[in-house]
Amino acid sequence: MPRLCTVGPIDIGPGRPLAIIAGPCVIESLELGLDTARLLKSTCDAAGLSFIFKASFDKANRSSIDSPRGPGLQRGLAWLSQIRRELHIPVTTDIHLPDQAEPAAAAVDLLQIPAFLCRQTDLLIAAGQAAAKSGRAVNIKKGQFLSPTEMSGPVEKLAQAGCTNIMLTERGTFFGYHRLVNDFIGVAEMMHLR
């Protein structure tokens, strides 16, 4: 049976309104984050959709070492926490290292695991433990190199770390170079894992 994932006041799953996770790739400033979140929230409210604001404090997977990565852990989490408080909306961010899990769980409602890190045991255990301790949720983005059923491994790692408030996101499957295909049948398969 498919389960629900609770993110702040929002239940995500079958029979619930569509939840939109949106925001800038990287949080560039508090002001821009607030402006973007306000616009997205009002748009989702008008459409009757749930909304979770997403922005990264550090994009560690840039193609160039010189690319801007964001404000860093402390400043980025402070900004996300302020957006959460001022606008009364749930927020999420990616974490890339195990030691980011606990501080992120103190500031955001949903910890996200990037697709290319979805099988990293230490990261999943840290996220699972931080989420279980704080009452937060974890969203694992499915790696493009995994089948939907292979996501049972990352889900099991979170569960063994104490986290049962889990969501999975379909990120596509490689179809040759520079081609990603989203498998919507795979979404249904992932809904029934664990």
Description of the structure:
The protein is an alpha/beta fold. It has one domain (5-191): TIM Barrel. The protein is 37% helix and 19% strand. It has helices at 30-47, 73-87, 101-107, 121-134, 152-160, 184-191; strands spanning 5-7, 10-12, 19-22, 50-54, 91-94, 110-113, 137-141, 166-169, 173-174, 180-181. The strands form three sheets. The protein has a six-stranded parallel sheet. A two-stranded antiparallel ribbon has the order 1-2. Strand 5 (91-94), helix 3 (101-107) and strand 6 (110-113) form a beta-alpha-beta unit. It is globular and about 40 Å long. The mean pLDDT is 90.
Topology, element by element:
Elements: E1 5-7, E2 10-12, E3 19-22, H1 30-47, E4 50-54, H2 73-87, E5 91-94, H3 101-107, E6 110-113, H4 121-134, E7 137-141, H5 152-160, E8 166-169, E9 173-174, E10 180-181, H6 184-191
Parallel strand pairs: 3-4, 4-5, 5-6, 6-7, 7-8
Antiparallel strand pairs: 1-2, 9-10
H and E string: EEEHEHEHEHEHEEEH
Task: Calculate the terminal CA-CA distance, rounded to whole Å.
Answer: 9 Å
Shape: globular
In the CATH scheme, what's the topology name? TIM Barrel
- Spatial sequence of strands, sheet with the most strands: 3-4-5-6-7-8
Biggest beta-sheet profile: 6 strands, parallel
Q: In percent, how helical is the residue content? A: 25-40%
CATH class: Alpha Beta
Tell me the number of helical segments per DSSP (H or I, 4 or more residues long): 6
Percent of residues in β-strands: 15-25%
Number of domains: 1
Concise structural overview:
By secondary structure, this protein is of the alpha/beta class. The chain is built from six helices and ten strands. 37% of the residues lie in helices and 19% in strands.
